[in-house]
Design brief:
alpha/beta; Nucleotidyltransferase, domain 5; elongated
Length: 484
Amino acid sequence: MYAAVDLGSNSFRLHIGKHDGEAIRVLKSVREPIRLAAGLDAQGNLTPAAMQTALACLKNFRVVLAAYKLDGVRVVATSAMRVARNAAAFLPEAELAIGYPIEIISGEEEGRLIYMGVANALALPGERRLVIDIGGGSTELILGRGQEIERVESFSVGTVKQSLSFFIGGRVDSASYEAAILSARSHFEDAAPPYHPQYWKQCYGSSGTARTIADIIVKNGIGREVNLDTLNALKQRFIEFGHVSRIEMAGLRPDRAGTIIGGLAILIGLVHELDIPVVQPIEAGLRMGVMWDLHLRSTKRDRREQSVQACLLKFHCDERRANRVADDALALYMQTKPAGEQYSRHLYWSALLHEMGMVVSHTGYHKHAAYMIENADLPGFTAREQKTMARLISAHKGNLRKVADALAEPDFVKAVVALRLAVLFMHSRMDIDFTLIKLRMKNRIELEIRREWIGDHPTLSYWLEKEQEQWDEVGVDFSIRTIG
């Protein structure tokens, strides 16, 4: 049983589902209209009131989650948390409130998860499709075939900002709508060509915005499908009401009218720019994608592994050296008896990719690799994971002052020691028998190696002395004992 929590810009949502044969069946669904994006002040900070509302919701979600025996829980935050300047300060409180780590995912990762939810719901392996998702703070376009994603982009235009910016004070008129639609079109016009209909057979609208608009169109007799004509007809109906507070239509809850007017402008802009004939709403998206991702991870089909392997190929890494360092680093790390599993996989992946910066320059390659890892579009990884890997890669070579602030975390230090030693032994051309080496770490680092290795590998003593000096600079004692 899995739980997906989506901290969206407009609503916080929770799904609890169970994998049942070829599908994930939703057992529990909760939605709270938090309006987080509307809680950003002029400086881009979440206001105290917005944060308190969010925390109260997260505490309620924690109660719901505690009532189920869950195999996996993943909490993802999207556009509003991506842009909030004080997100880093708010995150610890939010995590404490819900009781789970919160991942602020990129727009591209959001798009991939959305597509995963749609693709698994459709189960049409050969269909070429475009998926559009209009959220509170961003809009994602995903082009794919069956389960495979061919292109994904995220655009910083969403229902909340569009509504607040163009329908001032809730006024709805022709001029406001034309301005809102033109603004939306400007976001998509340059990116539109790869998403034109010749590249797909069916267009799906996966967001609550698209589903609500489709529902309004059908229930109010405007039409039977979502196309440019029916969208314009709905726009005209909204204009006739004159103000958001007066909008009353079947299929539209009063609390959603304020954002749907902006969402409609975005959808009309998309249909114009991409020449979309019909948008088919679908009851699947980000939360279903998150649960499928949890299921795949539990069955050892982790997309992060695929991303790392793709990087190895793309940046022409020496796989023999990469695999050796990764295996050695993990073996050394396990000798230090870390308190948990937090760094094991990220250490292994960092070790595999530690030389990818050589595609830029051999000088300072670790700095290039760290920058690339932190800023790359790596499917399956969160920004926090990529930052952790970037810090490990940056720390594997040279001085340790650059990660001094992270050295208070014992398991991180153990991971750094293991990676640095694995690289050191590889550069010394040593084939390590791990029954003959001991690495311990409590208040200091203790390394025990065979005496004959010093004679067999002349540079080893030099590199080990340099290693002791580097750790001494950050106040960590590194003792080396030779035996035999």
